[in-house]
Automatic annotation (TrEMBL):
Name of the molecule in the record: TetR family transcriptional regulator
Ranges where the HTH tetR-type domain occurs: 20-79
Database matches in Pfam families: TetR_C_43 (PF21597), TetR_N (PF00440)
Keyword Ribonucleoprotein: no
Keyword Ligase tagged: no
InterPro entries the record matches: Homeodomain-like_sf, HTH-type_TetR-like_transc_reg, HTH_TetR, Tet_transcr_reg_TetR-rel_C_sf, TetR_SbtR-like_C
Keywords tagged on the record: DNA-binding, Transcription, Transcription regulation
PANTHER family according to UniProt: HTH-TYPE TRANSCRIPTIONAL REGULATOR BETI, HTH-TYPE TRANSCRIPTIONAL REGULATOR RUTR
Length: 211
């Protein structure tokens, strides 16, 4: 192979750099489009916004599900890192917990695909779910140690509550946008330590009223 050969190794780094730029552009555009329209959007809109052809898009992501999963994973990881740092930097335990929920739901309210993913696949990957659970556990422990959390509240309670409120974001987005803030305030009020009534045990049936 001579130095004039067009297939010399010297040309490969440039092609790899172009491929990486295209991939980054696709992921960035997909993040915006999925957030606005959800996972059902036509990938042609993603290709248009990213400035690449459909062939280039499919070379990087053969299926829309692969692209969606990549985008959601990156977004959730970035959000969780920022939320955890902010919560740990907040001195007041209750404000840290409330702020975490506020940030979680505000993020979901602005990203339709994230909330849809909870219904379709159960949410992000197991590793991200575990990181989120661990963060909530830290916040719960801080609040319990400070005496500001209702007795009997577990990390599972708070984790399940985050999922339920995330679903509320999706179901009320069209009819009552922003209602999640009201639901969050009601939920947080029920978590405060002034509420001392015993909580039902896990796995027990809800008592039926007697007339």
């Amino acid at each position: 192979m001579t130095s004039a050969d067009p297939a010399t190794p010297a040309s490969r780094p440039g092609r790899r750099a172009d491929a990486e730029r295209n991939r980054a552009a696709i992921i960035e555009a997909a993040g915006q489009v999925f957030a606005e329209h959800g996972g059902g959007v036509d990938v042609r809109e993603i290709a248009r916004r990213s400035g690449v052809g459909m062939g280039t898009l499919y070379r990087h992501f053969p299926t829309k599900d692969q692209l969606l999963n990549t985008v959601l994973e990156q977004q959730f990881d970035a959000w969780l890192t920022a939320a955890h740092q902010q919560a740990m930097a907040t001195a007041d335990p209750w404000r840290a917990l409330a702020g975490f929920f506020e940030q979680l739901l505000a993020d979901h309210a602005g990203n339709r695909a994230v909330v849809e993913s909870y219904t379709a696949t159960g949410g992000p990957s197991l590793s991200c779910i575990q990181r989120c659970y661990d963060c909530i556990d830290q916040l719960r422990t801080r609040c319990a140690d400070a005496g500001v959390l209702r007795p009997g509240i577990t990390t599972d309670d708070l984790f399940q509550l985050s999922g339920a409120l995330s679903q509320a974001v999706l179901t009320t987005a069209e009819s009552h946008p922003g209602q999640w803030r009201r639901l969050l305030r009601i939920s947080l009020d029920g978590l405060k330590s002034r509420n001392t009534d015993p909580l039902p045990e896990y796995g027990t049936a809800t008592p039926q009223p007697r007339f």
